[in-house]
Amino acid sequence: MSASATYSEIWRSSLSAVEAGQYEAAVSVGLTPFQAYVRVIVPQAISVGIAPLCSATLSILKSTSIVFLMTVLDITGRARIAAAAGYRYLEAYVVIFLIYLIVCSLVEQAFKAAERRFTRYRGDS
Predict the structure, then answer these.
(1) Which among 13, 23, 26, 95 would be 20 to 30 A from 103, CA to CA?
(2) Is residue 121 scored above 80 in pLDDT?
(3) Tally: H helices and E strands in the chain
């Protein structure tokens, strides 16, 4: 899975979800094209794309333990090495589970706060 392709597709679709009339209205009231994007288009695109961005980020975060199969020493690999010394695999994997649970919960809460922040003026939410 290519994370950069996923993120760029999320941003592309979010930008295309904003109606073209929004840009035209912003320019017609005197904003420059740059100001129209920064003040009108991008905030609306963020409010559309924040949920899929959260989902993609959590998916990538949860799949980091898979890189151990490619001999990259991540948290799972370090736990396996430490557990092998005393044959205490259960404790090591419970600690990994708790770390992933805490990190994923924190990331999810941060995205929920950002979603509330960016969607507070939308009429459909």
Answers:
(1) 13
(2) no
(3) 6, 0
